[in-house]
Amino acid sequence: MFVDSHCHLSFPDLAGDLDAVLARMAEQHVEAALNVCVTLEEFEAVHAVALRYPNVYASVGVHPDYQGVREPDVDTLVALAQRDKVVAIGETGLDYFRLAEPLEWQRERFRVHIRAARACRKPLIVHTRAAAADTLRILREEGAEAVGGVMHCFTETQDFADAALALGFYISFSGIVTFRNAAALQEVAARVPLDRLLIETDAPYLSPVPFRGKVNEPSRVPLVAGKIAELRGMDVDAVGELSSRSFCRLFKCLPDYS
């Protein structure tokens, strides 16, 4: 069994063919997926996919890269998080790679998500890029350890992973871990505790080798598990099973794996 802990089924590359996407998931023994929200404007579509398919879950949040969209507030996030099958707050975080200062609006948006997560007692889905120090600082200042969450599509250092683990976060690896130039990330993937490790596709992005550069989908998450299994000298099914149990602990779903 495998679970895709982070994908975007509502994005155009996948939304028009969901029955086939879910069928291919089943063929590859991918039992569930978390469909992640990136704007409040798309939340209803994200949630509708979760309601349509019994093995798809949803989140609510506004990605740090998005400007000119409806700005979230704590009350709105908490209210939407109460909807059936909404299991997390996010995708949220900081991204200094694509956008330039002043970015105080981005940091404040991140704080709003953390406060909402604490208010509704649901975990955070955190995106961080070129913003490691501020990400950890704000998580600590806002008491994010009270709810924990996941560092999604992890590409940071071992020191960052250790700090996130100390805050109660899980670490999720995407298809990047299969790339030839990802040696440093592979070293982290070999060391993260197995009970705090998740796997994801971030579909439709970041297809793992040998599909790099093509539209990604949840059926390819076993390839991520396969690379981690190779790095750790394990059986791929064991990585799938352990990461699925981690997913269930964090997001409190899939009761057969609690």
3D structure, described in words:
The protein is α/β, with parallel strands linked by helices and 258 residues long. The protein has a single domain (2-257), classed as Metal-dependent hydrolases (TIM Barrel, Alpha-Beta Barrel). 40% of the residues lie in helices and 17% in strands. The protein has 10 helices and 8 strands. It has helices at 12-15, 18-27, 43-52, 74-81, 104-120, 132-141, 158-166, 183-189, 221-232, 236-251, and strands at 2-7, 30-35, 56-60, 86-95, 124-129, 149-151, 169-173, 197-199. It has an 8-stranded parallel sheet with strand order 1-2-3-4-5-6-7-8. Strand 2 (30-35), helix 3 (43-52) and strand 3 (56-60) form a beta-alpha-beta unit. Helix 4 (74-81) packs across helix 5 (104-120) and helix 9 (221-232) crosses helix 10. The protein is globular and about 40 Å long. The mean pLDDT is 97.
Question: What are the main properties of this structure?
Answer:
258 residues, alpha/beta, TIM Barrel, eight-stranded parallel sheet, 10 helices, 17% strand, globular
CATH superfamily heading: Metal-dependent hydrolases
Number of helices: 10
Give the overall silhouette.
Answer: globular
Q: Helix fraction? A: 25-40%
Number of structurally distinct domains: 1
- Structural class designation: alpha/beta
β-strand percent reads 15-25%
Q: Please tell me the overall pLDDT.
A: 97
DSSP summary, beta strand count: 8
Top-tier CATH class: Alpha Beta
Low-confidence stretches: none
The arrangement of helices and strands along the chain is EHHEHEHEHEHEHEHEHH
- CATH architecture annotation name: Alpha-Beta Barrel
Q: What's the alpha carbon Rg, rounded to whole Å?
A: 17 Å
Largest sheet: 8 strands, parallel
Measure the end-to-end span. Answer: 14 Å
Strand arrangement, largest sheet? Answer: 1-2-3-4-5-6-7-8
